[in-house]
Design goal:
The structure is a single chain. This protein is an alpha/beta fold. The protein is 47% helix and 20% strand. Strands 3-2-1-4-5-7-6 form a seven-stranded mixed β-sheet, sandwiched between helices. β2, α2 and β3 form a beta-alpha-beta unit.
């Protein structure tokens, strides 16, 4: 069985950037493992942190089942301080062990041009770990809050059969509704734009970086 590792700063990042592609990979028989760095506990400052964490874990578990994600692993780093947390060598070693354990055929990470600092931190950490491994890894970057194009090799994936379910998947992150609904329109137009590139209705774009 071929494993796919998806690294996210927060549990809803890949819903925006590659929800359709994950469905396609699952349909092809791949085991998708999602590794989440932070619970995103600062998104609801008026709630107790433990309450937010439990809410996000439950909704993420339900969303993963809906999409067919095999496993979801939380690293539990502090929200908005992922970059500082990743200075801890034990955490980096844990991530390296996960890559070596699952032996993925592909790894997906956020891009380094994403405006969110936690997303950029995940990108930097994973690429550093991947480059330290003896076995070369196939690594792709996905977009979340990106506003500009990058000059890197691009891969477009036809997600036309999966686009409706991608939207439903995004809406399952109910604690993040204020962000998900803001992103629905950009996701829609971006999917159309990328679809035109390869002659389909909807597509997602990735950057091949390793």
């Amino acid at each position: 069985m071929s494993n796919i590792l998806v690294f996210c700063a927060h549990s809803d990042d890949e819903a925006v950037g590659m929800g359709g592609t994950i469905q396609k990979l699952v349909e092809e028989g791949k085991d998708v493992v999602k590794i989440v760095f932070s619970y995103g506990e600062s998104s609801h400052p008026h709630f107790r942190e433990k309450v937010v964490i439990n809410m996000r874990k439950e909704e993420t578990s339900n969303a993963s089942k809906f999409l067919g994600i095999k496993h979801t692993i939380f690293l539990g780093l502090e929200d908005m301080k992922v970059q500082d947390e990743l200075k801890n060598k034990k955490i980096l070693a844990e991530i390296k062990e996960l890559i070596e354990k699952y032996k993925p055929s592909q790894i997906y990470i956020p891009t380094p041009k994403d405006p969110h600092p936690d997303h950029r931190a995940v990108n930097k950490a994973i690429l550093k770990i991947v480059d330290s491994l003896e076995k070369k890894q196939e690594v792709y970057e996905f977009e979340v809050w990106n506003l500009t194009d990058e000059s890197k090799p691009m891969l477009f994936i036809d997600i036309t059969p999966y686009f409706w379910k991608k939207k439903q998947y995004m809406k399952l992150f109910t604690t993040q509704w204020q962000y998900m609904y803001v992103l629905l329109l950009p996701v829609y137009f971006r999917a159309i734009k990328y679809g035109l590139k390869i002659g389909c209705k909807y597509a997602e774009r990735f950057y091949r970086v390793r």
